[in-house]
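Much of our argument rests on the idea that a fold can be written as discrete symbols. Part of our work consisted of pairing the sequence of a single chain with a tokenised description of its backbone. No coordinates are needed to read the tokens, only the vocabulary itself. The record that follows shows the chain in one-letter code together with its fold in token form.
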Amino acid sequence: MKLNVTVNGEPKEFDIHPKDMLLDILREEGYTGVKRGCSTGDCGACACIVDGKAVNTCILFAAQVQGAAITTVEGIGNPKAPSPVQKEMTEAGGIQCGFCVPGIVVSATALIDENPEPTEDEIREALDGNLCRCTGYVKQIEAISRAVKETRKTRGTRAARIA
């Protein structure tokens, strides 16, 4: 069957089998920031943004996203033009081995896109599905909080946007 989606802003058509997982399709197409960790939806290494929500692609059939807008970590930023989350993850020391980082960046980006001024508790909740074996999440939460402040500078405060 044909799967028509938008990946990182570009229209794509993939030949898929109804039982293919979105993770496998994305990796086969070269989106290597989407990682296979657990294959059970527990670690968040495979996270992507699908129609504005962070989802674990290892437990999502590709056929379920027909017509969707998908953003992988590659679509969020790159080394030459990092997103605020990516920049702050590096600067705050939120990266150790790096395996979990794409999923954490995706989850944090989805949160900030939906709620530009999340509290620390909301950040922790957004990262609840992302496992990191190297850190205690302190530096990652600090990085995301810093990214929120950076994003606020470029977007303005919520009150200013409403007015």
